Amino acid sequence: MERFFDTNNPIMRFLSRLVDLAVLNLLTLACALPVVTLGASLTAMNYVTIHQARNEETYITKMFFRSLKDNLRQGIGLGLIYAGFAAVAAVDLLALRRFDTKDTTALMLILTFISVYAVTLAAYSFGLLARFENTVRETLKNAMRLSIGNLPRTMGMILIWVAWGAALLYLHKAAPLAILLYGVSLPGYLCTLLYDPVFQKMEAEINTQSGTVPKEEK
What we know:
78% helix; DUF624; mainly alpha; globular; transmembrane helix; membrane; DUF624 domain-containing protein; transmembrane
């Protein structure tokens, strides 16, 4: 019995991580409620999940609000860019649904794929903003380079979000609770497990002349 409650027990570590992700999700949603702070909130979430992926000691609330404060201005800018894209994509999808032709169906599939890709691009972007000093423009450019240059990992991230969306549809009535507790933190954490090895390689080979500096080393 003592072994079961041992913090080094794999089951206890798993349960502890689930609790941490639930807390992180609640913080992320709460700080994203003003909408304009969505990007800063997602950046803070990625800051925490990167530390979790590296099995570094994490104080969820303290680390979250530290990153939220440090990246507020750039996070807002980056968030507004993705929010604008999401709004345009949503309007286009709703408009296309009014027509039932092969052409519009194909366009809807293409737009849906682009939208899902944009979600993974956002994961790279907010992760980069959380970890590296750079402008919003350069962060977006680097996110695109990483997503294309690490295509297998990017496809894995797409599959994570598609699977999570399918799971929410399957859960049906329980979906609101799942979204409240793990809506963005769970798929976000799984995506971090995929992109963080790339970040670690970047940090090991970092070129100070590029202007991209790990925030942890400032």
